[in-house]
Specification:
mainly alpha; Multidrug-efflux Transporter Regulator, Chain: A, Domain 2; 6 helices; elongated
């Protein structure tokens, strides 16, 4: 038996499915080992770490394109560039949180108006959504 992991064992060890591994290969995040004649591709055990790196970066909100950049930086130990990417991602997340807080405030107000409304009057939620004067 050849050294290394089959794609199934690699996927299991990293906590992903085989199609995820194949997708990452198509995206250039993972190298696809050569297939020996009449045999199966074998992945080096360190590929598990790379897969876990990708999944952890995704959990933090990085896109696959951004992760590709992080993986390149990892190889060169470019902490300043990695920090810049993370700071940019943080700024985007903070903006998204602010946007969600504003949406929450509007929806909370509409729900309260609806709760306080009388039967037979227009629903404040439907009315607000139908209004032409709002963006």
């Amino acid at each position: 038996m050849a050294a290394g992991l089959t794609i199934g064992r690699l996927a299991d060890a990293a906590g992903v499915n085989v199609e995820t591994v194949r997708y990452y290969q198509r995206r250039g995040l993972l190298e696809e080992p050569a297939k020996p004649v009449g045999g199966q591709r074998r992945y080096p055990p360190e590929m598990v770490k790379r897969l876990r790196f990708i999944k952890r970066a995704q959990v933090l909100g990085f896109t696959l394109s951004e992760i590709t950049g992080l993986l390149r930086l990892d190889a060169g130990c470019e902490c300043a560039e990695a920090r810049e990417l993370a700071a940019h991602k943080l700024a985007l997340i903070e903006q998204r949180i602010a946007d969600l807080a504003a949406i929450r405030q509007v929806l909370t107000s509409l729900v309260r108006q609806c709760d306080a409304g009388e039967f037979g009057t227009a629903c404040p939620i439907i009315a607000a959504l139908a209004r032409d004067d709002q963006q």
